[in-house]
Amino acid sequence: MTSDHFPIEACINFDYSVIPKTQPKKLNYKKANWFLFREILKGQNSGLNSALIDELNEEITQKLISAAHKSIPYQTNRIFKTSLPPNIVCIIKERKLKTLFFLILKLSKFKKKIFDVVHFAENCRVSAELGILLYKFGPINPSWALTFDEKKIVKND
């Protein structure tokens, strides 16, 4: 045999059941009705007549838990954003813009595309570095020029 692969032995068990992990519910203390909590505990105080400390501790714990369930709501599951913040999106677009700009400069047959890059840069606030680069390389088409003023790129006619 000339193969360098090693055999893998697997055993499939059909009795396996997946138990989904559930997070324990947490109480939302900010939205608790503390007046109701106190009233429930005051109403339940009359039944404490146990002689043993452990039994008394268990009774008090159960009363606190039941009062909490009645007066304190549970927290809702948080839904996390799937999109990036606008400033991060702008940084990513700016990096792509720099790459695109230098590619367009190298390929002079795409002279019209540079205006699209500048228009894109106007919509997404461009950093001073990119604005200076656009100004430094000057106009590709003599009919218009790029100027840099307060992080904006403006087309001059």
List the helices and strands and how they pair.
Elements: H1 34-44, H2 53-71, H3 86-106, H4 113-123, H5 128-137, E1 145-149, E2 152-156
Antiparallel strand pairs: 1-2
Query: Any idea how many domains?
Result: 2
From the N-terminal CA to the C-terminal CA, the straight-line distance is: 76 Å
Q: Give the number of DSSP strands.
A: 2
Oligomer kind: single chain
Write structural notes for this entry.
This protein has 157 residues and is mainly α. The protein has two domains: 29-71, no CATH class; 86-156, no CATH class. 46% of the residues lie in helices and 6% in strands. It is built from five helices and two strands; from the N terminus they run αααααββ. It has helices at residues 34-44, 53-71, 86-106, 113-123, 128-137, and strands spanning 145-149, 152-156. The chain has a two-stranded antiparallel sheet with strand order 1-2. β1 and β2 (152-156) form a beta hairpin. α1 runs antiparallel to α2 and α3 (86-106) packs antiparallel against α4 (113-123). It is flat. The chain starts with 33 loop residues before the first helix and ends with a strand. It comes from Brachionus plicatilis (Marine rotifer). This is RNA-directed DNA polymerase from mobile element jockey-like.
